Amino acid sequence: MSTPEIVHAVRWADGREAVRIVDQRLLPERFVERELQTLDDVCEAITTLAVRGAPAIGIAGAMGLAVAVQREASGDRARFDACVSDAAARIRETRPTAVNLPWALARAVDAARRAPGDAAAALEALRDEATRILEEDRAMCRRIGECGLPLVPDGARVLTHCNAGALATGGIGTALAPVYLAALEGRRVQVWADETRPLLQGSRLTAWELARAGIPVTVIADAMAAALMRTRQVDLVLVGADRIAANGDVANKIGTYALAVLARHHGIPFYVAAPSSTIDAATPTGDAIEIEQRDGDEIRRGFGRPTAPADAAVWNPAFDVTPAALITGIITDVALHRPPFEFPMSR
């Protein structure tokens, strides 16, 4: 097939003085790019999921940190360093579950602190480190695709959840990277995209992205996955991850755990694809992963319309944890890891 048209979810605006993102809240109805120019812009965009996906928010966080402190670059170095720390702390609090955000921020802060010279020099070091994080992410996505490519033969029918494609990263995605490379090699690939309730990242984002790239995709409601598997229309499940514990437990978008249970029952391989930066050596098991709780109105008033009584109690975790015992393999930019999971820790 021809080269898929890959969207750029996050990148620098001209001059590295703003962060340009695709506002994913508006898809698929409208394709709009925004420029984040202040700390408030950056925090609001990450919190409201205008930019989302663990790798993408790491990139946006590092770039956004540079944007947030650039007005201090003409002043005192000590004040600049303090502003960097304060801004990083605020950005870090926007999404507590995904490890890529604190990881990228820590890299950026360290680069600024180690830079010799005045505040302007430290700002340039901060921008350079954020640029490296973006470039590394693009290369990482490609390597994940190469490591996962043998799992996607000609004619493969892949079920995915949420969005772990280009919209979630700086490159061609994590879980969708093997799909993109398989399509580039001329293999026929069919993707089933879970709607991914309550914010519909699968139907709004994954289906939009794959259709734009010319890859066949069919949307299903989350509750249809079991019936689809029972009728033997799924060959493998490919999902992303926001944090991977040292033992291989995986936190990903709510609904992932259910897919893993269903896949095990139906004898279908269940794979997780994520950058090695998503593996958190400081988190021994999934029980130690903090799960973000989101506003109940995402369920009570889905996309602005009443979908439950206004006073209904709501439990709305953004993520769930899939035990390592249910995972066939974890695809990283280093290798395809099989159980029992023992990861080389580079961070």
Instruction: Average the pLDDT over all residues and give the rounded result.
Output: 95
Major β-sheet profile: 7 strands, mixed
- How many structural domains in the coordinates? 2
CATH topology title of the largest domain:
Rossmann fold
What top-tier CATH class of the largest domain fits best?
Alpha Beta
Structural class: alpha/beta
CATH architecture label name of the largest domain: 3-Layer(aba) Sandwich
Q: Would you kindly provide a written description of the structure presented here, covering whatever features stand out?
A:
This protein has 347 residues and is an alpha/beta fold. It folds into two domains: 10-141, Up-down Bundle (Four Helix Bundle (Hemerythrin (Met), subunit A)); 143-337, Translation initiation factor eif-2b, domain 2 (Rossmann fold), CATH 3.40.50.10470. It is 37% helix and 15% strand. The chain has helices spanning 39-47, 54-69, 77-92, 100-114, 119-148, 177-184, 201-213, 225-230, 256-266, 297-300, and strands at residues 10-12, 19-22, 33-36, 156-160, 189-194, 217-220, 236-239, 243-245, 250-253, 270-273, 279-280, 319-322, 329-331, 336-337. The strands form three sheets. The protein has a seven-stranded mixed beta sheet, with helices on both faces. The protein has a four-stranded mixed beta sheet with strand order 11-8-9-12, covered by helices on one side. The longest helix is centred in the middle third of the chain and has 30 residues, at 119-148.
